[in-house]
Specification:
The protein is mainly beta. The protein is built from four helices and 18 strands. It is rod-shaped and about 105 Å long.
């Protein structure tokens, strides 16, 4: 007689530690405390930024980085489906400093930079938490800004053409040849897509699995109905505007075990065990969700008489239709998992009584509430 909790994208808390800079693949390092300032006699360079990944990730990075990079030179942004070694090693027709941000892997971003001369390069790998959240984006912006600053300040920084070619060849060793990158569509600097464009409302679909433990009050003075459960969800993240809040929707299904409990009456006892199954929809924001659903409580009932005058009936299974509502609050994010607390309420459209047949007279042993409060703790992946 309990339910299930699941996550969709699922919530991360302030207690999570996200690595800021991971796995630098550099032959030389350039340390900078702030972006370099070009000499008044040297015109600022052009900076071309290519993002390989979903449109929503492109919008977030563009909104975060464009103003910072514009202080270092004129910027031009575009998107691509893939990037290969030929793109990185090719000379820039406009002698621009080029940056590729490859988000093809949810757990890692690959950064590649080419100096305006086309002879010096930086290649870096940066670990992500999985959702490109605020902490990820802030740390990533710092790495990109410092890397571009290093090449502007000293074109001898980083790797030579031969070293870069060898490094990219080692990365591609054993993998199938990549198809040529799709044509990119330049986006003018400082000009966000117009409202209603598909890029700003693109959805990020995600499958989640959750493990939870729930406890439900079912009647006055009786043991709490409790037990572990499993949930599955298919969620979508919708971002109407690059700087606006993210809306999450999900379809979910759950199953929970009800640990056995025995309820004592005056002349008999009833032992209850079984489980609960639910399905429904969920909507809300990153750390606050509303869930509605329905399903069945499947209960195995067995009775035992404490009076010799009573003959209890045999054990049997019963099913009860239940409606459910829940408020879910995300309280912590731990890399690939999220911790949720759910406050639920079950509503039984019809009353259910458990008891025994006492010589043609039904003797009630246990009458559950038709409205039952519940709490659950869940970890989603």
């Amino acid at each position: 007689m309990n339910r299930v909790r699941i996550g969709s994208d699922l919530a991360r808390g302030a207690g999570r530690a996200v690595p800021l800079i991971a796995a630098l693949t550099l032959s030389s390092t350039a340390h900078a405390q702030s972006a370099p300032v070009a000499s008044p006699l040297t015109p600022p360079p052009s900076i071309e930024v290519v993002v390989v990944g979903r449109a929503d990730a492109y919008e977030r990075l563009h909104a975060l980085l464009d103003r910072r990079l514009s202080a270092m030179g004129s910027t031009a942004w575009s998107r691509a489906e893939r990037v290969d070694a030929g793109d990185v090693l090719a000379l820039s027709p406009g002698h621009a400093l080029r940056c590729w941000i490859d988000l093809g892997d949810r757990r890692r971003v690959r950064l590649m930079f080419a100096a305006p001369s086309g002879e010096r390069f930086l290649v870096r790998d940066f670990e992500l938490s999985g959702d490109l959240d605020e902490i990820d984006r802030a740390a990533l912006a710092e790495v990109i800004e410092l890397s571009i600053g290093a090449l502007i300040e000293d074109e001898r920084a980083g790797l030579s053409r031969e070293e870069t070619q060898a490094l990219l060849a080692r990365r591609a060793a054993g993998a199938a040849a990549l198809p040529p990158p799709s044509p990119v569509r330049p986006v003018p600097s400082g000009s966000p897509p117009a409202a209603g464009m598909p890029a700003s409302g693109e959805q990020g679909r995600r499958f989640e699995i959750g493990i939870f433990y729930a406890a439900e009050a079912v009647a006055d003075g009786l043991p709490i109905d409790n037990g572990p459960g499993l949930s599955l969800a298919l969620s979508d993240e919708i971002r109407r505007h690059a700087s606006g809040p993210r809306l999450f929707t999900a379809a979910w299904v759950s199953a929970r075990m009800m640990l056995p409990e025995t309820v004592m009456g005056t002349d008999a006892s009833v032992r209850l065990a079984g489980g609960a199954a639910r399905l429904g929809l969920e909507v809300g924001f990153k750390h606050l969700r509303l869930r509605l659903g329905a399903g069945w409580d499947l209960v195995h009932v067995s009775s035992e008489a404490t009076s010799a005058a009573l003959a209890p009936a045999g054990a049997r299974w019963t099913s009860t239709f239940v409606c459910e509502g829940a408020i879910r609050v995300g309280i912590a994010d731990m890399r690939s998992s999220h911790l949720w607390i759910s406050l639920l309420g079950d509503v039984l459209p019809t009353a259910v009584d458990y008891g025994i047949d006492a010589g043609g007279r039904f003797e009630v042993v246990f009458s559950p509430w038709r409205i039952r409060p519940e709490i659950a703790v869940e970890i989603t992946y």
